[in-house]
Design goal:
Elements: E1 10-11, H1 26-40, E2 42-43, E3 48-49, H2 51-54, H3 58-68, H4 81-102, H5 115-118, E4 119-123, E5 126-129, H6 130-138, H7 192-208, E6 209-212, E7 217-221, H8 223-226, H9 235-242, H10 249-258, E8 263-267
Parallel strand pairs: 1-4, 7-8
Antiparallel strand pairs: 2-3, 4-5, 6-7
Helix pairs in contact: 1-3, 1-4, 4-6
């Protein structure tokens, strides 16, 4: 496998002509284009999204033109917590997809050293990498799992953009372009609660949490190890959080009843590109 050792950041919308005024619904435009990406380049016979076909497409040119509008976007126009949360989740997800396409990633984001720290957008006159969005804004400037550093320091103006509280369900919604991460969805402020609940059920019931009754154990996605504190900080708290998301009532009851006794192991994260 090739590994690209980049030593600089890639601000993916910096080379485009920036309109004098951002469209009022630039976030909505990006969401719609993301949906087009999901369906327009999916090859049913192969069960994969043809990433290699996107870079030279008219869709990608349109997408890049739309992403350039983020530079002039007025972040103060996001008035409610729902608007802010939906905006940043969607921007994170399209940024990651954009990075995969722009950098020509073939099999895994691991081909690019520190991928999430390298790719970013200019939004409202400020630079945001994927790590800045996830850990700085959506996780309340939390320490990164590996480096243990906080994204924003000192008097960084981006600190004012942090969400009011950390909603652990973001981990069911953020797309990292791997087979182990959640499916690509579109999040809307007006339906955000429902959208996040659906993302939770989808993630948990598609392999995010597997019950092994015979062994009295649970096999969990590694997100529950990396972000354990976001889910309550203990094994029992994590399982209590997970339990309501199981489709089957018997599974919900089993986990709720045995949350304090079940052994937990973690499924290694599969960083290969999510092809579907």
């Amino acid at each position: 496998n090739r590994r690209i050792l980049f030593t600089r950041r890639f601000i993916l919308n910096s080379g485009e002509d920036v309109p004098s005024e951002a469209a009022a619904d630039v976030a909505g435009d990006l969401k719609r284009l993301m949906n087009t990406l999901r369906g327009g380049f999916f090859h049913p016979a192969e069960g994969r999204v043809a990433v290699e076909e996107i870079a030279g497409s008219s869709f990608f040119r349109l997408y890049k033109a739309c992403s350039s509008e983020l530079s002039g976007f007025d972040l103060s126009s996001l008035r409610s917590s729902e608007e802010r949360l939906a905006f940043w989740i969607n921007v994170f997800n399209v940024l990651v997809i954009h990075g995969v396409i722009e950098l020509g990633i073939r099999d895994s984001i691991k081909e690019v050293t520190n991928f999430f720290r390298r790719i970013g957008y200019n939004i409202g006159g400020m630079t945001f990498t994927a790590d800045d969005i996830e850990h700085g804004i959506l996780r309340g400037n939390a320490r990164l799992p590996v480096t243990r550093q906080r994204p924003f320091r000192g008097n960084d103006p981006r600190l004012s953009l942090m969400t009011e509280h950390v909603d652990p369900r973001i981990h069911f919604a953020l797309v990292c372009a791997s087979r182990s991460c959640p499916p690509i969805e579109i999040y809307r402020a007006e339906t955000l609660e429902k959208d996040l609940e659906i993302s939770g059920r989808t993630f948990i019931n598609s392999g995010g949490a597997i019950i092994d009754r015979g062994r009295g154990s649970m096999i969990l996605s590694e997100i529950f190890r990396w972000y354990r504190d976001d889910f309550g900080g203990s094994n029992e708290a994590v399982l209590d959080f997970i339990a309501p998301y199981f489709y089957e009532e018997a599974d919900r009851r089993f986990v709720e009843k045995n949350a304090g006794r079940l052994k937990i192991s973690y499924e290694p994260y599969d960083w290969r590109l999510n092809r579907t």
